[in-house]
Amino acid sequence: MSSWRSPNSGGFKLVLIGKDGGIELEERDVLTPQNLFAVIDRMPMRHRELAG
Fold first, then answer.
1. Where are the alpha helices (DSSP H) in 1-52?
2. Rg of the chain, C-alpha, whole Å
């Protein structure tokens, strides 16, 4: 069984992977939803969704 770690314990890492398999974001800090969505909104696939 895996154990849960607090984001402040040094064990937290957020990795956002694009549809192409590339790493779009690596962050060791907790992001606010607004900051995370801002990163997603800058991704090419999201631009296509908004234009379509």
1. 33-41, 44-51
2. 14
Distance CA 11, CA 52 (A): 39
State which residues of the chain have pLDDT below 70: 1-10
Q: Give the pLDDT confidence score for residue 50 in this predicted structure.
A: 79
Compute φ and ψ for 22, nearest 5 degrees: -80, 150
How far is it, in rounded angstroms, from Cα 14 to Cα 35?
13
Query: What are φ and ψ of residue 40, in 5° steps?
Result: -60, -40
Contact 19, 33 (CB under 8 A): no
* Structure token pair of residue 48: 């296509």
Cα dihedral across residues 27, 31, 34, 35: positive or negative: negative
